[in-house]
Specification:
Layout lengths: L3 H9 L4 E4 L3 E4 L3 E6 L4 H7 L8 E5 L3 H10 L4 E2 L9 E5 L5 H15 L2 H10 L6
Antiparallel strand pairs: 1-2, 2-3, 3-4, 4-6, 5-6
């Protein structure tokens, strides 16, 4: 089970990231990585009884195929609402994701959003990339 402190630590380990008020993390001042995404009334309505309790993390993913792979691989961790249809982002049950999976998710989000030169430098110093 991951916590907001685990999210904060995972993001802080990456270059050129910062935390905005309200538990939202970005790279380069403008590109969102991960964020606190409480469910709204319309989300509860769409999800019905499957709407999770607990903290929800929104996360940028590389593309729609990556999103679908995460949804298929760990359906008890990842989910979406209609609001995210057609958009490369996913929702995460923070209390259901383990910290290694969270770390990989944050790194992938960062690699998607970081400036190419910064991402390349990081990958050069981390040849195994995300685990």
């Amino acid at each position: 089970m991951a916590t907001w402190d685990d999210v904060r630590d995972a993001v802080a380990a990456l270059p050129e990231t910062f935390e905005e008020p309200g538990r939202s993390w970005r790279v380069g001042r403008s590109k969102p990585l991960v964020w606190d995404r409480p469910l709204r009334a319309v989300d509860h309505q769409a999800l019905g009884s499957s709407a999770p309790d607990g903290p929800i993390l929104g996360a940028r993913v590389p593309d729609l195929d990556a999103k679908e792979e995460l949804l298929a691989r760990l359906p008890d961790v990842y989910f979406v609402t209609p609001h995210f249809d057609g958009y490369p982002a996913i929702l995460v049950r923070l209390d259901a994701i383990d910290t290694d999976e969270l770390q990989d998710l944050v790194v992938e989000a960062w690699l998607t959003q970081a400036p190419k030169r910064v991402a390349k430098a990081w990958l050069d110093s981390h040849p195994d990339g995300p685990s």
